Amino acid sequence: MAADIGALDTFPKLLLHHAKVRGARPAIREKDRGIWQTWTWTQLADEVRVLACGFADQGLKRGDHMALVGDNRPRIYAAMCAAQCLGAVPVPLYQDAVAAEMAFPIQNAEIALAVVEDQEQVDKLLEILPQCPTLKHIYYDNPRGLRHYAQPQLASYDRLREIGSEAAKRDPGFLEREIEKGAGDDPAAMFFTSGTTATPKGVVLTHHALIDRARAAAEMEGLTDRDVVIAYLPPAWIGQNIFSYAQPFATGYCICCPESAETLMTDMREIGPSYYFAPPRVLEALLTQVSIRMEDAGRFKRALYRHFMDVARRVGGAILDRKPVGMAQRLHYALGDLLVYGPLRNVLGMSRVRVAYTAGEAIGPDLFRFYRSIGINLKQLYGSTETSVFVCVQPNGQVKADTVGPAVRGVELKFTPQRELLIRSPGLFREYYKNPQATEQAKDAEGWFHTGDAGYLDADGHLKIIDRVKDVGRLDDRTLFAPKYLENKLKFFPYIKEAVAFGHARDRVCAFINIDMEAVGNWAEKRKLAYTGYVDLASRKEVRDLITQCVEQVNADLAADPELAGSQIHRFLLLHKELDADDGELTRTRKVRRGYIAERYASLVEALYAGKESVHVEAQVRYEDGRTGQISADLSICDARSFPPAAAREAA
Is the whole-model pTM more than 0.85? Predict the structure, then answer.
């Protein structure tokens, strides 16, 4: 059996294996017009065969690149595997990216063929077509709105299937011969980095890297072909691709594609995933919805919820980790599970979740403990595009709120004197495409990947990440300044959506803050505070006072940390608009582009440090429909109380 598994060293070979041994079992489900449609492994293999033959007829060959743009859909994943059958390299692009952001990856990878979901994506590619002369074929899945498009590059997905069916009849053994040529060391996919600080880089990952890491994590968690996963994050993000492509192919489990973002919660309740992934922002949004619903509930329900959540906070995590808990407390928790936790897990769509992961950003300890306390086995993992995701994972029974766990099987970790984390793993990327200089800087001659993350291992061998090495700075008195750490602590509060901290080479720390419109709006409505929109709500003195309390709580926490007590936040302002990827302020994975923001809003930064009480701002913003507009506002600058270091207080 081991030899058989070793021979399955590419995704197309795994597909044929699943079609043979579990052909009638579901591979992918998609909700369409309110009804779940199922593709079995046999049906998926048949679809891939037709598509691969069609791609070959249209000129796609070994080593070529093919773009994929769309939401999680069976046809998107079938097209990915079809390209791999021919030895071509699929390049998923973010479906919410504006047209200009798609131009560089298409130019860089010299993409000639693209498969897209709908008219929106077609329009983007047609817009940049003059800049991308290599792009010759665009195949669209959903024909709605495209009836009168006459560009020669365009054809429907169904037309591609027709071409493929005819080609397959002419040479029935073609696909098997092409698949057999593939090897584990061949490139399987290319994912472009988010470009937080520089031009995006194409990360080339091999079949071996992705399959090895998918299998390592699956073995650790005991995943089987009976597990079910919901695929709702962008396919262009390596995390979603691992959970909805690499691991299903490695284990044979089924993925489910929700109808839309609006129906996600309902769809989750219907399919009941057993294996789940969510970045902290998604978990924060879910908890915010729960909190708002509880505020609207009757007095008895609110009291019941608060009582049993206190019980959950005391013993829920210990029960989940199978630690000793008294019988009386277990019974009390069991009653809470019947009345509160069980119904709450059902509302969240997590009734059947056996393993849940969070990654991408630091998660607040209170948020993390909330999910674990109600019986959801939420764990943290650490990884990146360059490492095929799985580097560190918290094992069952060894879950901590402030670490990301020990190294996964096969991974080695070490640190430079500057605390930078280095990784050696079977899942490491091959190269940055057409960028040998960046490849040499990131991966040394001994095979160590330089992550750029600063951290250390605790006494139990669990990894703790502090910040990006390049972002760790010093105040002018040499106090350690870790902006991302501070920003994450601020975002742990439900009222704060984004934060940007400044302080390197300055005398103190100041910050920009975005309020969470939903959470603060609900808070304001409960207090009968009228407002007309984001700018008006953020300008209210009551809201500034609310956020000041959050900032001062962060400062009180920092005072207890010997290394960071001196980097408490002294002044802040509430931004006039939400930071937005379309305005270049965030990446598509919602990481703050701190340098760009500091440059764009330099006058606001200087006002914070000049001791001003307010500052006038006029800025251009981009709306969801693509229009631009001007915002003019006077922003109040708030002072926050700081606290003496805990060591100093204790000595006094």
Answer: no
